[in-house]
């Protein structure tokens, strides 16, 4: 269900008819592949109507169960409840709530000031500060679009005013914002763990080093391009100014200690950490920074609840879908096929990346993970791939997907802030996106990058 | 009438997310403090049982998810793949949108009915007949939840209630679309809060550094 | 030939665990002895239905056979099964099998029938050890310790009876919670302790054998009673042999796990003197008293009579 998006051409009737025909032919071909083919063709067809992904998943399952199997359909109703009846999943609404208090609460603003005082004097100083602020904000927020909004809405206009080309700022922030899901906490990581029954804490740890590496890489690209373009630098801040900026932002920075420190010191489980961060973010937004007046709190709660409900609704229906997959033995068949064709780890990971990148064209991360992880994960385990490594590589892949069209939440958000069209933004992000693609290959084929820290901590 | 329903929906989900957060925070605080060997306080805390907190939080969130999903239809927050639809000629797009809305209504209506049947057979039937003093010999008394020991049929009724409400919302959106050609749209690119701290503050943020503002000539030599 | 009768046997643990092996063994026996007239499809690892769903799936007829842990029957409304969770109610396997293979056990399984469920057999997992980062020997050692338990009222009061704080945690998070210290300790049969690598993150393991963990193999009543009589009889024979096999594998598995834990040197094994064990038993008797009326005094007394339980 949608309306037109900036920068997208509308087809003429003739062109639209051609497209529809092509799609129909492709889907028809997929449907001839047997029951699995029918499932996927139906799912794709329903999704292309623009109906909510959750509904498309659910309708596919119902149709299939009604016509092709003898599973009692009440089991479906039960799954709709039990699918999300898990304490680990509850981290998602908590992290969303915390994130909303942070974006409303002036935490980002103070983090930016701190970052600018530290690195603003280098080549492309404000851009570097933007990357650093994104990394800092990523360490307290679990979502990429939220990171883009929180940092970008302040940083981008500031960069333009300081004399940076608009494209430059948009490119940096759109891509750096994606750190939000790689540096823990991370909502898609929670979703992955729930879908594969892995440990949230271990995966969070796995994201730290790759997150810092990617932040440095994006910063490096910005520095290099700024140096080439001879872009402005800030005056070096004095240590006194830095200390003041640090003091101002300390309340926000302390949330990093609460979330990560709390989990790894054994104060709480990841879900409890999420709840505590929501409480803490509420306190600093309302009582310390006072950027959120008390009467606005119900609105923040309502918005968070609504966003969480949307995600939880996709999750329940995706759980149904993976139940259908298991029922039809599809993960098993895929695993057998891959193992039977001696498709080794290298080619399997390549296939995984391509599949995820393709999915990244049309869906957002949580849906992709929920649909594909239950299918790919068993194969990965049979090939001896570490669950944490697999989770990190999926997350990095999702980051790439968020930054390119046609569907890329970061792009949409950036477009909303900068009032730039999607196609112009696409051009703007490419230097950083290219770096991210390279980084994705590194994470894919060098497992130690993601595994070193969790192992060092004893997982 | 409709306004009351809208308000009720909003109040329910707002309350559920807020209360669940507070409950978990209390449970964590309780567990942490009871581990400290403080005379008196420890005895008191050990005598309080918070084991139900996790379970209650889960159920509150499941209810929030079901009713929030219905609210989400009204506010247009559910994400879909719009790559194709948005490019179709207007009249075609209208047909597709109506199809998509009907799909939503169909699914939620079916799930509502399946859920109602499940809830009925999973203990409601027994509970109702038992209450009315009728013969329950052949009926199954449904299970209870492990910690709170509440009948699961009451907990599970979130599925039929939420789904029927969602179905109603889809139909409502469909009727409105036919009338006005407008759909509720949640702008995922818009996050509340940036209006207030947005562009205005960004200038402030910059002005803090205005004094250091870069002077083009010094660029060649750097400002180090 | 007519299409074979399909039995979907769903369980929530890995294939190589004692329960997983026993399920596969039953499948083998059943398919051999009925000469292919019955096909058993085993779904391990909660592939189809999770812990919380499988019971309702069985009642709906979506699966035909399960082997849930005995603690799962209380939420179903048959609280009598919580008798198995009572600490120290069985001192050893002889006492246990007097119940599970005797009239009291059969009587308990009968109570499932109004729920549309038939109980076929009890499968052992084993007796539990208590682990923590300090040696748990006397009752005062428990004070203020945060102990992970499975969701169960009886286990909750067991932990409270010695002054510790029970905490329900998902199985997938236990290792990390122990490692970081969200919880200080837990109770498990040795095989679970070892396969989940919990011994790596626990300094001490007390060989207390204080509680029992077991399963019941159950089937959908309508389905089972609708089977041809000869097939049902054959399957019941298979179940009997599978049960013997299950209990042997479980015992062997626990013994090997304990030896492996000892050999690893990652945690130290602590033995209780008879006096210390008696003190535990006496303190934890509170869990019996507190839950007596809940479980049903009749059934608890019957088990006491069979095993000769005496807290003092
Ligand atoms: Na993050
Ligand atoms: Na994309």
Describe this entry's structure for a reader.
The complex is a heterotrimer of chains A (459), B (224) and C (312). Chain A is mostly helical. Chain A is built from 22 helices and no strands. Chain A has helices at 13-31, 35-48, 53-68, 74-82, 91-104, 107-119, 125-138, 144-161, 166-176, 179-182, 187-196, 200-229, 239-264, 270-288, 297-327, 330-340, 345-359, 365-382, 387-402, 409-418, 422-445, 448-456. The two termini of chain A are 44 Å apart. The relative contact order of chain A is 0.14. Helices cover 67% and strands 0% of the residues of chain B. Chain C has 312 residues and is α/β, with parallel strands linked by helices. Chain C is 44% helix and 18% strand. In chain C, helix 1 links the parallel strand 1 and strand 2 (38-43). The mean pLDDT of chain C is 92. In chain C, strands 7-6-8-5-9-11 form a six-stranded mixed beta sheet. Chains A and B meet through helix 1, helix 2, helix 3, helix 4 and helix 5 of A and helix 1, helix 3, helix 4, helix 6 and helix 7 of B. One sodium ion is lined by residues 138, 141-142, 180, 183-186 of chain A. Chain A: It comes from Geomonas oryzisoli. Chain A: The chain crosses the membrane at residues 20-45, 51-68, 89-107, 127-156, 168-187, 199-224, 245-267, 273-289, 301-325, 337-359, 366-385, 429-453. Chain A: InterPro entries: DctM, TRAP_DctM.
Key attributes of the depicted protein:
heterotrimer; A: mainly alpha; 22 helices; C: 312 residues; alpha/beta; six-stranded mixed sheet; five-stranded mixed sheet; 44% helix; TRAP_DctQ (chain B); cell membrane (chain B); cell inner membrane (chain B)
Short description:
The complex is a heterotrimer of chains A (459), B (224) and C (312). Helices cover 76% and strands 0% of the residues of chain A.
SSE string of chain B: HHHHHHHH
Strand content of chain B: under 5%
| Series of H and E elements of chain C | EHEHEHHEEEHEHEHEEHHEHH
Calculate the mean pLDDT score of chain B and round it.
80
How does the SSE layout of this entry go?
The complex is a heterotrimer of chains A (459), B (224) and C (312).
Chain A: H1 13-31, H2 35-48, H3 53-68, H4 74-82, H5 91-104, H6 107-119, H7 125-138, H8 144-161, H9 166-176, H10 179-182, H11 187-196, H12 200-229, H13 239-264, H14 270-288, H15 297-327, H16 330-340, H17 345-359, H18 365-382, H19 387-402, H20 409-418, H21 422-445, H22 448-456
Helix pairs in contact in A: 1-2, 2-3, 3-15, 4-15, 5-8, 5-14, 5-15, 6-7, 6-13, 7-8, 7-9, 7-12, 8-9, 8-20, 9-12, 9-20, 9-21, 11-18, 12-19, 12-21, 12-22, 13-14, 15-18, 16-18, 17-18, 17-19, 18-19, 19-21, 19-22
Chain B: H1 2-34, H2 41-46, H3 52-75, H4 90-131, H5 152-156, H6 158-180, H7 194-197, H8 199-210
Chain C: E1 5-10, H1 18-33, E2 38-43, H2 54-60, E3 65-66, H3 93-100, H4 103-110, E4 117-127, E5 129-132, E6 146-149, H5 153-161, E7 165-168, H6 171-180, E8 185-188, H7 190-195, E9 204-206, E10 212-220, H8 221-225, H9 229-264, E11 268-270, H10 274-295, H11 297-307
Parallel strand pairs in C: 1-2, 1-3, 6-7, 6-8, 9-11
Antiparallel strand pairs in C: 3-10, 4-10, 5-8, 5-9
Helix pairs in contact in C: 1-9, 5-10
The complex binds sodium ion (NA) (2 copies).
């Amino acid at each position: 269900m949608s309306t037109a998006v900036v920068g997208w051409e509308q087809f003429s009737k003739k062109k639209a008819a051609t497209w529809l025909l092509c799609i129909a032919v492709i889907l028809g071909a997929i449907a001839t592949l047997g029951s699995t083919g029918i499932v996927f063709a139906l799912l794709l067809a329903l999704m292309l109507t623009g109906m909510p992904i959750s509904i498309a998943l659910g309708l596919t399952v119902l149709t299939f169960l009604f016509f092709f199997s003898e599973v009692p359909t009440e089991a479906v109703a039960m799954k709709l409840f039990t699918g999300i009846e898990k304490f680990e999943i509850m981290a998602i609404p908590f992290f969303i709530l915390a994130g909303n208090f942070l974006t409303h609460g002036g935490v980002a603003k103070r983090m930016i000031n701190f970052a600018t005082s530290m690195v603003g004097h280098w080549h492309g100083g404000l851009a570097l500060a933007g990357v650093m602020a994104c990394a800092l904000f990523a360490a307290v927020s679990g979502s990429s679009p939220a990171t883009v909004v929180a940092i970008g809405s302040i940083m981008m206009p500031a960069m333009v005013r300081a004399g940076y080309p608009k494209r430059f700022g948009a490119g940096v922030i759109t891509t750096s914002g994606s750190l939000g899901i790689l540096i823990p906490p991370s909502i898609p990581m929670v979703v992955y763990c729930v879908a594969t029954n892995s440990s949230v804490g271990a995966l969070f740890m796995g994201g730290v080093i790759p997150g810092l590496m990617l932040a440095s890489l994006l910063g490096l690209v910005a520095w290099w391009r700024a140096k080439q373009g001879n872009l402005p630098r800030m005056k070096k801040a004095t240590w006194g100014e830095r200390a003041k900026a640090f003091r101002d932002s300390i309340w926000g920075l302390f949330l990093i200690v609460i979330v990560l420190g709390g989990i790894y010191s054994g104060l709480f489980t990841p879900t409890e950490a999420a709840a505590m961060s929501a409480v803490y973010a509420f306190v600093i937004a309302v009582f310390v920074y006072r950027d959120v007046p008390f009467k606005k709190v119900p609105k923040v709660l309502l918005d968070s609840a609504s966003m969480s409900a949307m995600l939880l609704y996709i999750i329940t229906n995706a759980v149904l879908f993976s139940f259908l997959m298991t029922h039809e033995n599809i993960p098993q068949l895929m695993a057998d096929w891959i193992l039977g064709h001696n498709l080794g780890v290298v080619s399997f990971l390549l296939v995984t990346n391509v599949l995820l990148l393709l999915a990244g064209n049309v869906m957002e991360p949580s849906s992709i993970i929920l649909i594909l992880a239950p299918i790919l994960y068993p194969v990965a385990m049979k090939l001896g791939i570490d669950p944490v490594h697999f989770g990190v590589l999926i997350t990095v892949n999702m980051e790439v997907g968020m930054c390119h069209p046609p569907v890329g939440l970061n792009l949409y958000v950036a477009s909303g802030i900068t009032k730039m069209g999607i196609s112009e933004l696409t051009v703007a992000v490419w230097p950083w996106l290219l770096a991210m693609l390279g980084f994705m290959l590194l994470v894919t084929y060098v497992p130690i990058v993601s595994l070193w820290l969790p192992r060092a901590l004893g997982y | 009438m409709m306004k009351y329903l809208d308000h009720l929906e909003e109040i329910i989900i707002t309350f559920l997310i807020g209360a669940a957060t507070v409950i978990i925070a209390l449970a964590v605080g309780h567990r942490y403090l009871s581990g400290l060997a403080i005379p008196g306080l420890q005895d008191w805390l050990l005598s309080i049982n918070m084991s139900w907190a996790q379970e209650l939080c889960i159920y509150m969130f499941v209810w929030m998810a079901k009713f929030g999903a219905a609210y989400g239809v009204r506010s247009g927050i559910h994400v879909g793949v719009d790559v194709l639809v948005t490019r179709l000629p207007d009249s075609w797009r209208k047909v597709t949108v109506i199809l998509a809305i009907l799909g939503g209504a169909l699914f939620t209506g079916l799930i509502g009915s399946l859920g109602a049947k499940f809830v009925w057979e999973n203990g409601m039937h027994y509970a109702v007949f038992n209450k009315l003093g009728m013969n329950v010999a052949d009926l199954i008394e449904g299970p209870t939840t492990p910690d709170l020991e509440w009948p699961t049929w009451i907990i599970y009724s979130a599925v039929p209630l939420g789904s029927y409400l969602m179905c109603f919302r889809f139909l409502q959106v469909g009727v409105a679309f036919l009338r006005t050609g407008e759909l509720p749209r949640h702008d995922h690119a818009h996050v509340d809060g940036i209006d207030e701290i947005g562009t205005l503050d960004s200038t402030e943020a910059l002005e803090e550094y205005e004094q250091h503002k870069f002077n083009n000539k010094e660029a060649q030599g750097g400002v180090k | 030939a007519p299409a074979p009768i399909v039995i979907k046997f769903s369980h929530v643990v890995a294939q190589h665990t004692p329960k997983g092996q026993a399920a596969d063994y039953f499948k083998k026996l059943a398919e051999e002895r009925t000469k292919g007239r019955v096909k058993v499809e085993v779904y391990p690892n909660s592939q189809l239905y999770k812990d919380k769903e499988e019971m309702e799936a069985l009642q709906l007829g979506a699966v035909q056979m399960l082997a849930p842990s005995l603690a799962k029957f209380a939420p179903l409304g048959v609280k009598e099964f919580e008798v198995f969770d009572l600490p120290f109610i069985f001192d050893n396997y002889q006492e246990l099998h007097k119940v599970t293979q005797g009239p009291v056990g059969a009587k308990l399984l009968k109570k499932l029938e109004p729920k549309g469920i038939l109980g076929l057999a009890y499968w052992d997992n084993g007796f539990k050890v208590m682990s923590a980062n300090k040696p748990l020997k006397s009752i005062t050692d428990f004070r203020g310790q945060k102990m992970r338990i499975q969701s169960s009222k009886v286990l909750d009061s067991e932990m409270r009876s010695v002054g510790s704080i029970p905490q329900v945690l998902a199985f997938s998070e236990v290792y990390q919670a122990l490692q970081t210290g969200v919880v200080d300790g837990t109770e498990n049969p040795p095989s679970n302790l070892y396969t989940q690598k919990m011994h790596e993150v626990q300094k001490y393991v007390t060989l207390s054998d204080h509680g029992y963990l077991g399963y019941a193999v159950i089937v959908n009543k309508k389905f089972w009673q609708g089977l041809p009589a000869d097939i049902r009889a054959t399957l019941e024979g298979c179940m009997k042999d599978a049960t013997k096999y299950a209990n042997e594998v479980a015992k062997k598995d626990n013994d090997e796990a304990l030896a492996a834990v000892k050999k690893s040197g990652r945690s130290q094994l602590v033995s209780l003197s008879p006096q210390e064990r008696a003190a535990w038993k006496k303190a934890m008797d509170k869990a019996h008293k507190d839950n007596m009326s809940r479980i049903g005094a009749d059934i608890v007394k019957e088990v006491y009579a069979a095993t000769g339980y005496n807290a003092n």
